[in-house]
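COMPLEX REQUEST
Ligand: molybdenum atom
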Amino acid sequence: MISPDHITSTTCPYCGVGCNLHLHVKDDFIYRVTSPHDAVVNQGNLCVKGRFGYDFMYHPDRVTTPLIRRTRQQPGQRTQAFDRSEWREASWDEALDYVADRLVEIYRRDGGKAMAVYCCAKATNEDNYLLQKLFRALFRTNNVDHCTRLCHAGSVAALLLSLGTTAMSNTAAEVIHSDCFIVTGSNTTENHPIIALQMKRAVRDYGAKLIVIDPRRLELCDFATLWLPLKPGTNVPLFTAMAHVIVQEGLVNREFIEARTIGYDEFVRSLEPFTPAYAESITGVDRALIVEAARLYATARNGAIFWGMGISQFSNGTAGALGLIHLALLTGHIGRLGTGLNPLRGQNNVQGASDAGAMPFHYPGYMEVDKEENARKWEMAWNIEPGGLNRTRGLTTTEILSHAHPGGVRALYIMGENPMMTEPNLNVTRLHMEQLEFLVAQDLFINESGAYADVFLPATSWAEKDGTFTNTDRRVQRVRHAIAPRGQSRPDAEIVCDLARRIEQRLGRPASAGWNYAGPEEIYREMADVVSMFAGITYARIEESGLQYPTPDATHPGTPFLFAETFPSGRGRFFPLEYIPVAEEADDEYPFILTTGRLLEHWHGGTMTRHSQLNTLYPAPMVEMHEIDATRLAVQTGDAVRVTSRRGSVVLRVEISPKARPGVVFIPMHFTEAAANLLTIDALDPQAKIPEFKACAVDIQIADVADAQQVPAVELRGRY
Ligand SMILES: Nc1nc2c(c(=O)[nH]1)N[C@H]1C(S)=C(S)[C@@H](COP(=O)(O)OP(=O)(O)OC[C@H]3O[C@@H](n4cnc5c(=O)[nH]c(N)nc54)[C@H](O)[C@@H]3O)O[C@H]1N2
Ligand SMILES: Nc1nc2c(c(=O)[nH]1)N[C@H]1C(S)=C(S)[C@@H](COP(=O)(O)OP(=O)(O)OC[C@H]3O[C@@H](n4cnc5c(=O)[nH]c(N)nc54)[C@H](O)[C@@H]3O)O[C@H]1N2
Ligand code: SF4
Ligand SMILES: [Mo]
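STATUS: Structure written out below.
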């Protein structure tokens, strides 16, 4: 038995659950991860990623020296370079001077509109706060965004429209206080495993009724009272038909509607066409099930709704989320323990990166960039002349790349994201990447996007730095370094400050005191001094366990659930909805609907998990399909097929799965050798600008022999 030199308490770097980890360290090496039984969020439970997925940081492919591409890339001819021989090692001074020179050259020539940055939902609040500050304060641009755009943007747009808020209203663990809860568009077992444990406990030990609304037969269906297997893209008619039933049967909470909402009468009129029969004809869900689900939720004492990407990742994603908000407003299932509107946030720190201003329309704390008083506050905090900050909304991630052309975005700085795996329609995304004049990647690995970069800046992983992450419950928790940085890698915040000082000097701006911090706590303080909901959060107070914002002052205990009295917008607003089908439906030429998403063992573009022992658990991509479709195609599990959409084509092996429904196939997004996003469509939700990752049309053919030889045979593990 090894005895550790020390055990460091920190927060998991994978998902938004935010489990507490104990990293056991011997000789500056993490050899084991555990979690204490009294951990507030996870009570000692961990999923396979938190427990075993940390070894990517030791992988030989990790880059720990600054690199510069040997040949200068020209716009229009930029190419991917994974081969180290195409890069040369550089000192930090040389690399940062080069980055500063080229960014300043482009900014001087083309102004702030040519500059853009992708922040990072894997990095800390402090890292993100500083990077958005750099681009806003020094380059006077709001072209600042991150993967939240590809994620809960539809939910955020809907919550802002209706309630004036963006985050989860309640704490996930409160699910044991719900007597009925809906899980929709969320494969919670694989993607928020510890919350799924709590949900199962709510059903098994506390007698709660679970309603699953999802096209796939997920593991949670084993625990559900009802499963509504809808056709992808039909959330709006389904939820609106539930509202129709709730109103028709007089199951509404009159008192709540009168006291706390607006627009009810007009909304009720709009419900008329959305009968359960009409919804059945569109969604494919039996009308009796729709009625039963509506009754079950509406008559609960405490009803809660949890949702995920199956709601927001549609060109009607905002409308889908509004459909859910309406159900809570009709029934008053919000503002109490065990109720609420709970969009499960995905990345470990997507909530925090959004809170810290890594968004094109908002400064930190969701302060709109186009409001004068907000701009003035940040000008004072950042020591900038009045009128200095840009007051126009910036471009979103999806727009930043589509604006990469002369006269548009010329320089892009990517801290820990991978658009060449995670944006839709990769063949077009690639053309945009090629058009950039200058690209910086700050990451642990040269991923599919970093391979296009001019300069690579090696960042440390979460286990080599200090700071905070904010989980899906709005809980700000500590991240602590357990081991020394590998090689020459440096924490993101340190890299950003070092670069900012160089840029400031080149721009001839007075050297502000703003880029010298004693440590991450001082960075957090700078933000919390302006953003009142974080004002009461200090590192001392979150030493043991995190605090849930809003925490307005030093004695405030934090806020487990929101909206007991009122909504930030005052009253919750109903919005009459229309059913707009997905951008691309199945037809004779492309007869299957493709939906994309995640697997328990892997993470997004795979940069972390495919460099981890987790990869051995699920080593190659598979397309999940129903037995009926497999019979029709005359294929069996393990056969290689070519899946083609109007935009691209991939070859991978079949998995006949009890989760699939006929006509709908599922491809995970994690595998570069069969990237799901070669197939997906870049249709966007008009309000949230989120892409339609969850539905497009594909054709499937048996792969020819040459193609089949390219894909390794896979041994199937027993999965749920
Ligand atoms: N293992 C693992 N965990 C993760 C991640 C990861 O990459 N790997 N990523 C994290 C991130 S950033 C996020 S955002 C979360 C995402 O977590 P989830 O939201 O659970 O993500 P997805 O796997 O994309 O699955 C969404 C579900 O939507 C369903 N769906 C598809 N179309 C529709 C529809 O029309 N209506 C409804 N109601 N449902 C539909 C799918 O069948 C699927 O079950 O996971 C987080 N956790
Ligand atoms: N088809 C399809 N596409 C999707 C989705 C889908 O469901 N289907 N889901 C979308 C969603 S919800 C999301 S959130 C996005 C995710 O999209 P991305 O954020 O682009 O994906 P990741 O693979 O998580 O990229 C994280 C990167 O950060 C690096 N990294 C990790 N830790 C650190 C750190 O501390 N510092 C720095 N500098 N880098 C670090 C990792 O090595 C990795 O390269 O994908 C979206 N794309
Ligand atoms: S549930 Fe999420 S936070 Fe918890 S161990 Fe798994 S990946 Fe980490
Ligand atoms: Mo996400």
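REMARKS: The longest helix spans residues 92-110. The mean pLDDT is 97.
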